[in-house]
Amino acid sequence: MARVAVVGAGLGALAAAARLAALGHAVTVLEQAPQVGGKLGWYARDGHGFDTGPSLVTLPQLYRDLFAATGGPLEDAVDLVRLDPAVAYRFADGTPLSVPGDAAAVPGALDAALGTGAGAQWSALMARAGRMWGITEQPFLRSPLARAATLARLARSGSDVATVAPWRTLRGLGTAYLRDPRLRTLLDRYATYSGSDPRRAPAVLVTVPYVEQHFGSWYVRGGLRRLGEAVAARAVERGAVARTGTAVERVLVEGGRAAGVQLAGGEVLRADVVVSGADAAALYADLLPASRPTRRVRRDLARSTPSLSGFVLLLALRGRTPGLAHHTVLFPDDYDAEFDAVFGVGRHRGAPQPVADPTVYVSAPDDPATRPDDDSESWFVLVNAPRHAAGHDPAGGVDWDAPGLADRYAQRVLEVMARRGLDVRDRVRWCVVRTPADLERDTRSVGGSIYGTSSNGARAAFLRPGNASPVPGLFLVGGSSHPGGGLPLVALSAEIVADLVGPA
Ligand SMILES: Cc1cc2nc3c(=O)[nH]c(=O)nc-3n(C[C@H](O)[C@H](O)[C@H](O)COP(=O)(O)OP(=O)(O)OC[C@H]3O[C@@H](n4cnc5c(N)ncnc54)[C@H](O)[C@@H]3O)c2cc1C
């Protein structure tokens, strides 16, 4: 039995804690915030309740696997609801598109909304995406990456490499398959699921819409935070100890291997294994002593583009919106301008800034647990945003704490929504604004990046920090390490780490 110290109680760390405790290890989870869950947060006031982070669960099978491996079915712990329609889109030309929750019904819906032929274009792309999924799931997503791995080396054959096309961007693949510009916009958006720019992210991200449509879009009744609570409860049932309000200040390294953690206040917790679910950039910059073995990881992190962040409005609304879908996306006229502004490239080279005319995402669960009465709604509104200009990289983001900026930008987002047909300005009971700076403060993700490093660039996935660090006994889980961010992938990182540590 090993003594395991887990840094942070984000979902990746909690899933690792549950698995390691179930394997018989003595696990202590150390979370600096007053509650567990990390980005999977919850805000409640006056009977309104909001998930403040994730609003969409994909690949719930990975959580079924986690729960089955740690003592009982997921469905006993949370109430999963498959969404249909999955998303209601509105394109810049005013065209509405409601994407059904069942993959088989998607081509027909595309034909009906965008014209005959749109469904066939999308189906051909999804067939390719399905082949890519089959090729990459096991050797890439479910395995710890060896040093110097490339997709070409991981693939089994030349034809696998041709299918995955590691040299191609998501935008490039979309342009080859999709003639309707609205379909290309739809595909581009999936780059943002990993915090990336479709013009630089690899084509293999086409597997994101594939798994979303194939395995469904899901909600957790009562709010997605219940998933975090359930994983935390499972870890504790298996014997893990969770300490909130407990910040880790240093990972101790003795004789070249991880030996425990030092907490704020000076307490030392000795451990045989340390699992860090904190942002990998913060781990390597602040928590670990600089050393020769970690130099390569620091260099790779410096060469990566951090993921985008998000600007969030929590809207407590009077009244109900007839026909509103659970998820709504309102697209802008010029999607490229959004990526230029967020990443400080193209027209905004070297100067990221809030997006003037952003894509707006609204999540409005029809769930009594989120509203004070049946004549109210609670909307989570998210737009892509440059990360907060962190101290070490002031030119890499925006100073979201600048006086007045957050309020002015909130008004802008409400105006954009109104222009695109969702005017709720006279229904707002109150509005809470959460900027990338707030996300950084709450979860210690550097600059408030949602997913650690982005997938921008053909080598991005291989520059992302691995699950086994160069320091023996120190492992990484969560969205800023392999295989990346989002609820499904962090469950995989936890499975990989539990396998690497092994049974007691
Ligand atoms: C606005 C928003 C929307 C999102 N939407 C979706 C979505 O719809 N679907 C989806 O799948 N994903 C979504 N995500 C991403 C998803 O939330 C994360 O990938 C997921 O929650 C996993 O996070 P994680 O395991 O990396 O840990 P995190 O949630 O980042 O948690 C890290 C934890 O470590 C703690 N910590 C950090 N440093 C220390 C320290 N030194 N000592 C102690 N504790 C420390 C932090 O306080 C935090 O609790 C969204 C995220 C955001 C912010």
How would you summarize this macromolecular structure in one to three sentences?
This protein has 504 residues and is an alpha/beta fold. Helix content is 35%, strand content 19%.
Q: What does it look like?
A:
The protein is an alpha/beta fold. The protein has helices at residues 11-22, 61-70, 106-114, 118-141, 151-154, 158-164, 170-177, 181-189, 207-215, 225-237, 280-287, 292-303, 335-343, 405-419, 436-443, 460-463, 487-501; strands spanning 3-7, 26-30, 42-45, 48-51, 80-82, 87-90, 96-99, 218-220, 241-243, 248-254, 257-263, 268-270, 273-276, 309-318, 327-330, 360-363, 376-385, 428-434, 474-476. Strands 7-6-15-16-17-14-18 form a seven-stranded mixed sheet. β3 (42-45) and β4 (48-51) form a beta hairpin. α1 packs parallel to α10 and α3 packs across α4 (118-141). The termini are close together. Bound molecules: flavin-adenine dinucleotide. Flavin-adenine dinucleotide (FAD) binds next to α1, β14, α15 and α17.
